[in-house]
Design brief:
The complex is a heterodimer. By secondary structure, chain A is mainly α. Chain A has 14 helices and no strands. By secondary structure, chain B is of the alpha/beta class. Chain B has a 6-stranded mixed sheet with strand order 7-8-9-3-10-11, with helices on both faces. In chain B, strands 1, 2, 4, 5 and 6 form a 5-stranded antiparallel sheet that branches. The two termini of chain B are 34 Å apart. Classes of the chains: A mainly alpha, B alpha/beta.
Chain lengths: 335, 325
C-alpha cells in the first residue's frame, strides 16, 4: 500500500510541471497587458511602463520568466499579487477554506440523499418511486444553477424569511478564524447563535451547489445497483434469509459503490475548482470568484498560483479516490 | 410424514411474448436424512422448482401449488418475514458457481458469521468459534487464517466448501445443492460430493441434489426424480432407476453414459428440450422419442402409479406383466 502511494505521488511530478506550464502559458496567451490594466484609465508614460516592465521581469525572454517562476514554486514561493501585493499563498489560504467548507457540505448533502435515492430507485425499478426519483434527478441535473439559486432565494429568503441571502455569517458576530472554516470557528468562539447563523448561511449554497452532484450520484447509484442486483451473490444473500434492507444496503451497495465513488471524486474536483456561479450569487468569499476577478485583472501570479494549488487539491482528491477503490473492493487491491 | 412435501407445483414466467411454463405440475417429497437427486437437461425446470421453494425467484415468476409444506410449516401461505426465519436456517441452498456466489467485497469469515448472527444470535466469540468449527467440518485447512480471506484469494473448490460451510452453519434440516460440482474440475467434484454425503450422515439433514450428471446421481443419490421440460416424468429409487428405467427419456439418458456404452460412438438424444414456442400438444418428449406413435403426439400422458415410478408415458418400459395382462 505504501509503495502504491509513493508510486502515485511520483506521477504527480509530471502533472505538476505540466500544470505550471499550462497555467503560465494560458494567462500570457490571453490578450491584454497587466501593466496597462493596472494603470487604468489614466494611462502611463513610456518611461514608467518600461520601469514597471523591468520590475515584473516582462522584458526578459519568456523561458527565463518561466524558469524563475518554476524555481520560485519549488521553493514554495508563488509570488505576490500584482493588485494587492500580498503573497498568492496567503490569499489562497484565506479564501480556500470557504470553498472547501461549501464543497464538503454540498458533497455530504449530495451523497446522503443521492445514494439512498439511487438504491430505492434500483430496488423499485420501473415502478412509481423509480420514475419519480429519476425524473426529479433529471430536472435537478438540467436546471440552470443561477435560476435554481434565485428561485430558492426568492422562496426561502424572500417569502419565508428562513435563510439569509448572502455571506457566511451575520455581521453582528465577530471572532478570530484560525481554521477559516466558519462552522468550526463559530463553535470555538462560544458566542451564542454564531454557529446557528453559520449553518443558516450555508443551507442554500449547499443545496444549490449539491444539486447537480446529487442528481449524478443518484443516477449512477441506480445503474450500478441494477447491475449488482442481478449477481449470484445477491441470490446467496437472499438464500441466507437476510432482510431486503440488509441485502440492498450492505451486500449490493458495497459492490455498487465503485462507479459511484468515481463520480463523487470527479464532482469534488469540479467543486474545488470553485463554484463560480454559486459563490457569486451568494457572495460567498471563495476561490471561484477570486480566480475570475484575477483573470480579468491579468493578475498573472494569482492566476498561475491559484490554478496550481487547485490542481494539487484535485490530484489529492483523485489519489484518495484511487485508494478508496481498494478499501471498498479488495479485488482491486491485488497489485 | 415427509420433511418436504410439494404437490402440483407450477411456475410460469411472464415474458413479453406471453407466459412461459418453466415448472409444470411437479410433485416432490423429501424425507428426513434422505438424498434425492433431481435430474434433467438444461431448461427442464430443476433449479426453478427449488428456487420457487426458497422464494428466490424474480417477481416475473408466478408460483402456484396445491401444497408446499416444509417441516410442518405451510410455505404457500407464509409471509416474507416468516419465510426469512426458515430460509438460510432450516432450509439452505448452495449454488453452481462458487466464485460468483460469494460476495467479493467481504471476507468469507464475515459472510459465514453473518448467518450465525442473524439466525442464531451468537455473540462475537461464539460466532468465531463456530465459524472455525464449520471450516474444519468442510475440510478447509488452516481455518483461522482462511476466515479473513476474500473469495478471490481462494480456489473454486475452496469457495464451494465455504458455501457449504455457510449453508450448514445453522444446521439446516434440508440442504438443496443446485449443481454444486458443475463448475469444478473432476477431482474436486468427487471431493465435494463425498463431503455432502458425509455431512448428511453426520447431521441427518435431507439433501436435494440438482444435477444433469447421471454419474453424480449414481454415486450419491438414494432416490431420483427425472424432470423433462418442467414436468416430473419419473421417480424411483436410484438402484431401480439404473436397473429398470420406465421412461424412454430416462433410458436414453442412461444409454448416453460412457460407461454403459457398447458402440464406438456414444449414443445421444437428438433435438433439444422444447421451449416457449415449440411445446408439443401431446407428450412433451414425443418429438425426440424413438417409440412415439400417433397417440403420443396428440394426448399428453398422465402419471402412472407408484409401482411404475409415476412415469408420464403411454408405453412405459420394463412394465413387465402388468401391461401385458
Amino acid at each position: 500500500m505504501l509503495n502504491y502511494v509513493i508510486g502515485r505521488l511520483l506521477t504527480f511530478v509530471p502533472t505538476f510541471v505540466g500544470v505550471t506550464l499550462i497555467s503560465f502559458g494560458f494567462i500570457r496567451v490571453l490578450p491584454g497587458d497587466p501593466i496597462i490594466v493596472m494603470a487604468g484609465e489614466r494611462g502611463l508614460t513610456d518611461e514608467r511602463y518600461a520601469e514597471l516592465e523591468a520590475q515584473f521581469g516582462f522584458d526578459r525572454p519568456i523561458y527565463e520568466q518561466f524558469w524563475e517562476y518554476l524555481t520560485g514554486v519549488l521553493q514554495g514561493d508563488l509570488g505576490n499579487s500584482f493588485v494587492t501585493k500580498r503573497p498568492v499563498w496567503d490569499e489562497f489560504f484565506a479564501l480556500f477554506p470557504a470553498t472547501l467548507e461549501l464543497s464538503v457540505c454540498a458533497m455530504i448533502f449530495a451523497v446522503l440523499l443521492g445514494l439512498p435515492a439511487g438504491v430505492i430507485a434500483a430496488v423499485n425499478r420501473g415502478k412509481f418511486y423509480d420514475r419519480a426519483l429519476m425524473s426529479t434527478a433529471l430536472i435537478g441535473y438540467s436546471m440552470p444553477i443561477f435560476w435554481w439559486a434565485l428561485l430558492l432565494i426568492i422562496v426561502f429568503s424572500g417569502n419565508l424569511q428562513w435563510t439569509p441571502v448572502s455571506g457566511r455569517i451575520d455581521l453582528i458576530y465577530y471572532f478570530p478564524d484560525p481554521t477559516g472554516f466558519m462552522l468550526i470557528d463559530s463553535l470555538r468562539s462560544g458566542q451564542s447563535g454564531a454557529f446557528t447563523s453559520a449553518v443558516r448561511h450555508l443551507v442554500l449554497p449547499t443545496i444549490v451547489l449539491g444539486t447537480i452532484p446529487l442528481a449524478v450520484i443518484a443516477r449512477q447509484t441506480r445503474s450500478a445497483m441494477l447491475e449488482v442486483l442481478g449477481e449470484d451473490y445477491i441470490r446467496t444473500a437472499r438464500a441466507k434469509g437476510l432482510t431486503s434492507g440488509r441485502i440492498n444496503g450492505i451486500h449490493a451497495l458495497r459492490n455498487a459503490l465503485i462507479p459511484v465513488i468515481t463520480v463523487i471524486g470527479l464532482s469534488v474536483g469540479t467543486l474545488l475548482a470553485g463554484a463560480i456561479l454559486t459563490e457569486t450569487i451568494f457572495s460567498w468569499p471563495g476561490i471561484g470568484k477570486w480566480m475570475v476577478d484575477s483573470i480579468f485583472r491579468r493578475d498573472y501570479p494569482v492566476v498561475q498560483g491559484g490554478l496550481l494549488l487547485i490542481a494539487v487539491a484535485v490530484m489529492i482528491v483523485n489519489l484518495t479516490v484511487d485508494m478508496l477503490y481498494g478499501v471498498i473492493n479488495p479485488k482491486i487491491r491485488k497489485r | 410424514m415427509s420433511l418436504l412435501r410439494i404437490r402440483n407445483l407450477s411456475v410460469a414466467f411472464s415474458t413479453s411474448s406471453g407466459a412461459f411454463r418453466a415448472v409444470d405440475a411437479v410433485d416432490l417429497d423429501v424425507d428426513e436424512g434422505e438424498i434425492l437427486a433431481i435430474v434433467g437437461e438444461s431448461g427442464s425446470g430443476k433449479s426453478v422448482s427449488m428456487l420457487a421453494l426458497m422464494g428466490l425467484l424474480p417477481w416475473t415468476a408466478n408460483v402456484t401449488a396445491d401444497e408446499i409444506t416444509f417441516d410442518g410449516k405451510d410455505l404457500l401461505r407464509i409471509d416474507t418475514a416468516g419465510r426469512r426465519k426458515i430460509v438460510g436456517n432450516d432450509l439452505a441452498m448452495i449454488f453452481q458457481e462458487p466464485m460468483s456466489a460469494l460476495n467479493p467485497c467481504f471476507t468469507v469469515g464475515w459472510q459465514i458469521k453473518e448467518a450465525l448472527r442473524y439466525h442464531l444470535g451468537l455473540d462475537r466469540t461464539a460466532r468465531h468459534r463456530r465459524a472455525i468449527e464449520l471450516f474444519e467440518q468442510v475440510g478447509i485447512p488452516d481455518p483461522e487464517k482462511r476466515l479473513s480471506a476474500f473469495p478471490h484469494q481462494m480456489s473454486g473448490g475452496m469457495n464451494q466448501r465455504v458455501m457449504i460451510a455457510m449453508s450448514i452453519a445453522c444446521k439446516p434440516k434440508l440442504l438443496i445443492a443446485d449443481e454444486p460440482t458443475t463448475a469444478l474440475d473432476v477431482t474436486i467434484q468427487a471431493q465435494i460430493l463425498d463431503l455432502l454425503a458425509e455431512l448428511r450422515n453426520e447431521t441427518g439433514m435431507g439433501l436435494v441434489l440438482i444435477t444433469h450428471d447421471m454419474g453424480v446421481v449414481a454415486e450419491t443419490a438414494e432416490r431420483v426424480s427425472v424432470q423433462y421440460a418442467g414436468q416430473k416424468i419419473e421417480e424411483q429409487t436410484a438402484a431401480k432407476l439404473f436397473d429398470k428405467p420406465h421412461h424412454p427419456y430416462t433410458a436414453a439418458l442412461l444409454d448416453a453414459l460412457p460407461e454403459r456404452s457398447t458402440e464406438r460412438l456414444l449414443p445421444t438424444i437428438p433435438g433439444v428440450v422444447p421451449g416457449q414456442f415449440d411445446r408439443p400438444t401431446g407428450c412433451l418428449f414425443s418429438p425426440r422419442c424413438k417409440l412415439a406413435d400417433a397417440l403420443c403426439k396428440t394426448t399428453p400422458p398422465m402419471p402412472a402409479g407408484k409401482e411404475l415410478g409415476e412415469v408420464r408415458c403411454h408405453y412405459p418400459l420394463h412394465a413387465g406383466e402388468r401391461i401385458a395382462s
